[in-house]
Input
Amino acid sequence: MSRVSNFLNPVSSENSASYAEMEDERGNGEQDSECDRLYLLKKIGDITRSLLECLVSGRSPTLYIDKFSTYCIEASGYCCCRSDLPNGKEILTMQRESHARRLDVLLRVLLIVQQLLQENKHGSKRDIYYMHPSVFREQSVVDRVINDICILLHCSRHNLNVVSVGNGLVMGWLRFTEAGRKFDCINCPNMAHHIPVHVEDVEDIISVAEYILIVEKESVFQRLANDQFCKHNRCIVITGRGYPDVPTRRFLHLLTKTLHLPIYCLVDCDPYGIDILTTFRFGSMQMAYDSKSLRLPAIRWLGAFPSDCKTYQLPQQCLLPLTDEDKHKLRGMLHRCYMEREVPYWRFELKQLLDSGVKFEIEALSANSLSFLTESYLPSKIRKGAYI
Output
């Protein structure tokens, strides 16, 4: 670890601030990226200087990292989870080999982040990995330490100038700009546009939509586009193409905050579809520290439900048996604290799915007709309020 002495150019020697102090110092940081950048450079200097002072004086450096979670599994039923507040601390010390390696990696990534901020450039997690592949060994090591850095600096990943490669798509009655580039979905509401990576630069949002619809998969998104669903229904349709990436979740959070529209979600009737739904509403465990800026508390589950099998008379060949892995995942989800506390009706549907022993994809609804989803299922659900 002696090589870490080459890692920094500290900006300040003041002690790191608490979460409350941070908010006071930064003020409205979202509107002042330059203040954010300078503030984070200062914080990086604080942390690295503190660690180096310990090394120089012969003391073992110690780092305290807050722990966050989006849920717990508490058998007693007693739960005080608050996903936007820390739940204990993880203590990293040089006295443990695994911790020493983690500190080494953390300081290496901090150096890269410091350089990105100083030069006001952006890089991806993959870019960072390839700067020291023999040290990092695998991408997940970089992913974890970036989360650690966000927690230490009390910020979101985009504040570090570390960006994700966006997978999300949007279409419908929406117009906005990103860093001067105009996205005019309204002009052709059934044409797909990539969701911007730099969501913090999105502004001038205009919409005449009546609701936002999230669909789990690109294939379903494409079905809606082919059937000109947005032309016939004043809505905005978004897909994260599976588990949603950060830009997609941030973009949705911005839209709901700006437009105040009802927001619905359509996923496969299987454990992974429902897990994607919970990721949108409650956030992911991996990024629990930032769930407040990513989750969508107002999201409604539009379908598909286990009861849709009988309601829409799906053929038996459209139903697939739940695997042992599916059943294990469902049982785990049933015990998440928010299922009982905040969405007991979702928990009921999960139990129904487990009891039925079968699952099905959204595309199974096409057994009725190719355009059944867009012409009958979705309009009927939204018109009748058939969502939970």
